[in-house]
Structures are given as C-alpha cells and as structure tokens.
Amino acid sequence: MTAPDALLVAVAALVTALVTAWVTLPLWRGPEPLSPPDPAALELLARRQALLAMLRDLDAERALGRLDATEHGLLREEVVAHGAAVLQAIDRLAEAARSASALRLARVEADVHAAGGTGITQAPSCAACGRVVEGGALFCGWCGRPLESGVAAAGDPAHASDRGHDG
Questions:
Q1: Residue ranges making up the domain that contains 152
Q2: How confident is the model at residue 114 (pLDDT cuts 50, 70, 90)?
Q3: Would 151 be classed as within a structural domain?
Q4: DSSP category for residue 144
C-alpha cells in the first residue's frame, strides 16, 4: 500500500468515526426535557400522593380497629373531598396547558401563513374537549358531544366548504 493510499484510508476511517460519534451522540446524552416542570403541577401531584397515602393509612387504622366506622367514614369523606379538589386543580392546569399549546400552534400557523407557507394540516378535533376525532365523525368519541360540521370534515377546509354541495 502506498503512502497516499494509507492516508486516504486513514482519512476515511477518521470521517467514519466522526460521523458515527455525531449520529450516536443523542443516545449517549439521553433524552432532553422538553420544558421545565411546572412547580404548581408538581405541588399538586405531591398533594395527590399524600392524600392517597392518607386514605391507605385510614383504611389500615380501621382494619386494625384503631378507628370506629363512624370516625373512619368522616375522616375518609374529608380526605376524598380534598382529593377531588386536588384532581380538579390538576385538570384545570392540564386544560390551561392544552389551551396554551393550541394558542402557540395557532401563532406558528399564522406566522407560516404570513410568510407565504402553507403550514400544517391539523387533525379535526372536538371543540368541547380538544381531543382529535376521526374525519367524518358526528360525535366526539371521548366526551360524546356533537361535532360542528366543519370539524367533522376530514380536517381540510376545502372539504368542509364542499360538504354542503355534495347533496
């Protein structure tokens, strides 16, 4: 093997090693978080876990005979009521996050459209719960509410406007 051939093989091996390292780098680092966790959500989830532990403890105390049925029932109702309030707060945070995400998507779509692009075609979704529904569906498969005629189309605004002319 001549010196230029050896140099070519060495350069090819180096390039191959660099490309392999660059391609596999995300596997070495692991997943990156998409966004920092919401402190309010973390606090609510911690409260939920604490309330679940309290329910287990109350049931254990009742099973051991340390609480009578009346006291157990009253304490359990109180913990369940607090738990329901925490779950409602978690649902409100999740809805706010979905709304914020939809607003960000609408802004991006508007920016793309303003720049002369076509944007992305959104899947049809229920106006009540926000879940994606199948094209042509008349009712949401998740919440059961009737879908607006434009939403029930295949998600394509052109098809939505043509529906009334099909007969």
A1: 122-167
A2: confident
A3: yes
A4: -
